[in-house]
């Protein structure tokens, strides 16, 4: 899966993008998506992976704590992601 935050569905039509074109030909492309709330990276990636909304998986930001492993994960702390 390739995911881009804030990347409009039609950006690849505005320039020559042979590598993106090849990915689309060999895979799938979504022309529209409805993000979960809050529309942040971690909550949406967890929803894609689990099929659950934020209220179920409880990831509501780009940082969160895993109570079982007592570890903090943050989009801004690359070694934990």
Distance between termini?
16 Å
The biggest beta sheet is recorded as:
2 strands, antiparallel
Instruction: Give the count of structural domains.
Output: 1
Largest sheet, spatial ordering of strands:
1-2
User: Radius of gyration, Cα only, in angstroms?
Assistant: 15 Å
Percent of residues in β-strands? 5-15%
| Average pLDDT reading | 88
Indicate the structural class: alpha+beta
Number of strands: 2
Number of helices: 3
What is the H-and-E element order? Answer: HHHEE
Unreliable runs, pLDDT <50, ≥5 residues? none
Characterize the overall form: elongated
User: Which range best describes the helical content: under 10%, 10-25%, 25-40%, 40-55%, 55-70% or over 70%?
Assistant: 25-40%
InterPro entries: Alkaline_phosphatase_core_sf (IPR017850), Phosphodiest/P_Trfase (IPR002591)
GO molecular function, one term: hydrolase activity
Pfam families: Phosphodiest
Provide a descriptive summary of the structure in words.
Strand 1 and strand 2 form a beta hairpin. The model has no long low-confidence stretch (mean pLDDT 88). A two-stranded antiparallel sheet has the order 1-2. The chain has 81 residues and is α+β, with helices and mostly antiparallel strands. It holds the Pfam family Phosphodiest. InterPro entries: Alkaline_phosphatase_core_sf, Phosphodiest/P_Trfase.
């Amino acid at each position: 899966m390739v995911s881009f935050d804030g990347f409009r569905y039609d950006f690849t039509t505005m320039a020559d993008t042979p590598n993106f074109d090849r990915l689309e030909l060999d895979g799938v492309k979504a022309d529209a998506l409805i993000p979960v709330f809050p529309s942040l990276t971690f909550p949406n990636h967890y929803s894609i992976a689990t099929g659950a909304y934020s209220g179920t998986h409880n990831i509501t930001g780009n940082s969160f704590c895993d109570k079982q492993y007592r570890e903090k994960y943050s989009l801004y702390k690359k070694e934990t992601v």
